[in-house]
Design a protein that fits this description.
The chain is of the alpha/beta class. It is built from 13 helices and 18 strands. The strands form four sheets. Strands 3, 5, 6, 9, 10, 17 and 18 form a seven-stranded mixed β-sheet that branches. The protein binds zinc ion (2 copies).
Length: about 350
Amino acid sequence: MKALRFYAPEDVRLEDVPEPECGPDEIKIKVRNTSTCGTDVKIFHNGHQNLTPPRTIGHEVAGEVVEVGADVNATHGSTWAPGDRVQVIAAVPCGHCHECRKGWMAVCQNQTSIGYQYDGGFAEYMIIPQQVLAVDGLNRIPDNVGYDEASAAEPFACAINAQELLGIEAGDTLVVFGAGPIGCMHIRIARGVHEVGKVILVDVNAERLEMSANAVQPDEVINGAETDVVARVMELTGGRGADVIITATAANITQEQAIAMAARNGRISFFGGLPKTNPTITCDSNVVHYRQLHIHGANGSAPEHNKRALEYISSGQVPVKDLITEHLPLDRVLDAFSIVQKGEAIKVTVEP
Ligand SMILES: [Zn+2]
Ligand SMILES: [Zn+2]
């Protein structure tokens, strides 16, 4: 079968590999959709410390069960069968460390990941490892949800995790930095689930800002390359500042701007990680102190967030179909990466 294998930074090959075999405690799926995100592009250029090459990458996966290992259903009390439509978690918690027992599976200290320690979804077939099954990380796709939409449930789950920490209240003013797919999903969730009020979308790429604004219709857009973002947000909020700010970008300055534009009792999510070589920001601690700001991190998602993402898509509460703007065959997976890198599409999905 064809698979996209990572060997080293800038050395990623679409090649023929043997079709994987399904062990007694594993499930084998025919991959239908694996979506791409900025992480894939980062892996392509820089690799990742937890990724052991050669490795099939791709972590936003949906597919169809073709084989169920002999021990799986007895071990997990499940009823998996060939033909089942499934979505796969990307971040795999261990299920037994301190954090997992506290219910904080997104920050499991022994977390492993699809496409890092296990072969991922840019391939015709994929094995669901027993570590995923052990934490109930294989999810049935509701009948009215497409494989392409289901593959977007993983990034969607990460956004749900972040927003859950923010205590968003109906009517809150929301600023989202980053008009990529995840910024769009943040806006959809904030409205569909948390009923935020005014939504302001910020980006420095005018074309991407326009494309995403057309899809999710924020109340205001700000091009950070042309406009003083903090001053403009202050103006749009009558000088009060934004109640909730989510930085869905890797740009350090957006985190500083988030602090500067936060309203009293404002809540901030540093959703996007910063470059490893430059991970520090300047923070006026007195602003945090006197304004009583709440600054949150966000690290991936727990299996439960993936289930919730599928429910929100199925119920129509948070639509994602229109955010998937490109469908490409596996042969063109590297084109998909360059589309993502250039920000030319909202979400690009690959169909092996
Ligand atoms: Zn991703
Ligand atoms: Zn754990």
